[in-house]
Design a protein that fits this description.
Elements: H1 12-26, H2 28-39, E1 42-45, E2 56-59, H3 62-70, E3 76-77, H4 87-90, H5 100-110, H6 116-135, E4 142-144, H7 145-161, H8 168-182, H9 187-194, H10 203-228, H11 237-243, H12 254-285, H13 287-297, H14 306-310, H15 313-325, E5 335-337, E6 341-343, E7 346-348, E8 353-356, H16 358-362, H17 378-381, H18 402-419, E9 420-424, E10 432-435, E11 438-441, E12 446-452
Parallel strand pairs: 2-8
Antiparallel strand pairs: 1-2, 3-5, 4-12, 5-8, 6-7, 9-12, 10-11
Helix pairs in contact: 1-2, 6-7, 6-18, 7-12, 8-10, 10-12, 12-13, 12-15, 12-18
Amino acid sequence: MAQAAPSTPLAPTQKVRLQELLYWIFAPLSFMEKYAAEEGPIFRKAIAVGAAQPNIWFVSDPDALQTILSQDTTVFDAPGEANGLLRPIVGDRSMILLSDQAHRRSRKLLMPPFHGERMRQYGDTIVAIARSAVDALGPNQRFVARQQMQDVTLQVILDVVFGLRPGDRQVQMKPLIAAILDMVGSPLRSSLLFFKQFQRPLGPWRNFLRDRAALDELIYAEIRDRRAQPPGDDQDILSLLLSARDEDGNPMDDQELRDELITLLVAGHETTASAIAWALYWIHRDERIRSTLLAELDTLPPDPDPMDLFRLPYLTAICNETLRIYPIGMLTFPRRVRQPIRLGNQALEPGELVMGSIYLAHRNPTVFPNPTEFCPERFLKRQYSPYEFLPFGGGSRRCLGLALAQYEMKLVLATWLRHWTFELTEPGPVAPQRRGLTLGPKTGVRMRTIAPRTP
């Protein structure tokens, strides 16, 4: 019987890179803390097995971040292909995978639905969805906050972004979306994104391909149906994108629409659910914080305008502190060095990649004293620069949906806390865990209801 050819052993440098990559996948916060402590706020790692991969610089110094995020493209550009890990999920035409003129065109087409005035129109829908979910709870009901918030934020996406009315298509989409996102719901499953050799039509990846194909069929069917309808006054984001035109008068084609919708789904559903779950955790860890927030919420009438909820200062401070202490996105989008430049005491060469470490920037003790302490009051006392506090990234790659994410986070939290009292059932502190390219609470935050409240 013929024997299989032995696999080629890894060279020593490849072994080191593989070890670093596995460390990065399974313990990203420990990875960043370790090397920042050893090498300073600007350090370089080659977290890839292939010898041709460029070095990646991790940067958390505010001055260096300002240099990276404010320079023009002759010094640093933002190559979409550097975000290729997400290609299997979001597709080739997603804005986050585009560069230069294609990226600018896509961003300009997507920007209008996310302007402040549009947010007002979405507020009532968000509150209604949050209210329906909290009203479904009963006394002494145990639940996992992240799962509850995934249901809420998914419904917001289906209503506000897709404009889907209740029906068969919405029912079919929900489990497919959940299955696709859960494919990277742990460090082990996230490794599928980092190792292309695992992306074969077997096991978990086969299931992912099947679910993605089924979801694509539903999305393309919705796009076809909506194109066939006469123009109306619908304000959901899909309707606005269908009517959008670039500078040459060209609309978005079906694949472009599909890829951008999936991008908005991934960026706006998974991340916001984690952020709200974290906020519930921190609020209920400290009775002083919870009482202060409830007192602020109780100053409003029974059915406040959503914008009045959005403007509450202590609620805003809690949301900001939640996004500071464990930012959902750990890193800014990569930038590529175009010409030799010094950042601090480090010399960077053309072709190398640079990523801002949002997590380390938010743990800088000279900017945020006692950085491991959850202290909303720090955001009431000081205004931070966009290079000190940057939970949504910065520069030309700053998250397009940040206004909707902040609005949704505040409205959902306020609605839930105004109508029920809760307590944590966690036996101890909740640790963060990688979910794809983001962070989420490892346990999901276990809670239970105590009693209903009357706003």
